[in-house]
Amino acid sequence: MKEDVKYGLFPCCSPPVLLVQYETSTRAVLAKLGVEFMEIKDFNCCGYPLRNLSFKAFALSSARNLALAEKNHVNIVTVCNCCFGNLKYVDHLMKEDPALAEEINQTLGKEGLEYKGTGSVRPRHLLDVIYNEVGIEKLKDKIQRTYRGLKIATHYGCHILRPSKVVEFDNPLSPTIFDELVEVTGAESISWKTKLDCCGAPVFGIEDDLAMDLTEKKIKDAKRSGADYVCVACPFCHIQFDRVQLSRPRRLGTRYYLPSVLYPQLLGLCMGVDDKTLGLDMNELDASGLKQFLS
């Protein structure tokens, strides 16, 4: 491993299966930015599906990933808000609950692993790495073309902001990081009332009507506020705004459809990454119209 490789890419379970374009666009953007990472093939699910079934199994799943990252001396970089939130939470628990940490490490020890949690490595979100490690100025240098007249409804998602003392990403009540990353492309990150509301994905499949009420409320608000697209950095949020929005019966009428674009897709176009790699045609709601805003 090269000395300057500081990250282990944690792709999350859903992108390789449901959102291939998120993984390909992320890899392309990171390559353009010169961010090198190692592949840790032993990474497993963050444990999110187990959280309400077996808390210890959930904690063990995330802790194992943290131990693998620590063993390889790299920070975990994830493209998923849920994975980010869960990894940060378990990292927090392992430092705050010695009894739990001991129990988890006893199990990890069976395969020669241990998570010490010394702070030498930590979970990172893709947006965090681009904003805090690459930086806005270097990002500007890598942009070849900018958008003109494009209005974006920037959707942060719940798990990247809360609980704020655990995730430590941005001000949960008035975040700006994602907005700045959107606006470096020349697009305008609009102001909209439901910006920080849940997209509805966590309850989809359990309370579908509630999930769609939340989704439709956000889409209607974003459209009313002038958005051309909603931009996300979480696979579950994208699926909710993209695939679920299109597939569910519409109470508000088709005029309220609003395409969702993943942040690496939005950024990648400005950096000269080709459409196929970005997977614009793989979004259920067509995102190819972004190109008409490029100047």
**Mean pLDDT over the full residue set:** 93
Number of β-strand runs: 8
Enumerate the spans where pLDDT stays under 50 for 5 or more consecutive residues.
Answer: none
CATH topology of the largest domain: Rossmann fold
The quaternary structure here is single chain
CATH class of the largest domain: Alpha Beta
From the alpha-carbon coordinates, what is the Rg to the nearest angstrom?
19 Å
Largest sheet properties: 4 strands, parallel
Question: How far do the termini sit from each other?
Answer: 40 Å
Principal-axes shape call: globular
* CATH architectural grouping of the largest domain: 3-Layer(aba) Sandwich
Strand order of the largest sheet: 2-1-3-4
- The class by helix and strand makeup works out as alpha/beta
Annotation field: number of helices: 13
Helix content: 40-55%
> Could you say how many structural domains there are in total?
2
Listing every helix as H and every strand as E from the N terminus to the C terminus, the arrangement reads EHHEHEHHEHHEHHEHEHEHH
- Classify the beta-strand content into a percent band: 5-15%
Written account of the structure:
The chain has 295 residues and is α/β, with parallel strands linked by helices. The chain has two domains: 7-125, Glutathione S-transferase Yfyf (Class Pi), Chain A, domain 2 (Up-down Bundle), CATH 1.20.1050; 141-293, Rossmann fold (3-Layer(aba) Sandwich). 45% of the residues lie in helices and 8% in strands. It is built from 13 helices and eight strands. It has a four-stranded parallel beta sheet with strand order 2-1-3-4. The radius of gyration is 19 Å and the shape is globular. The mean pLDDT is 93.
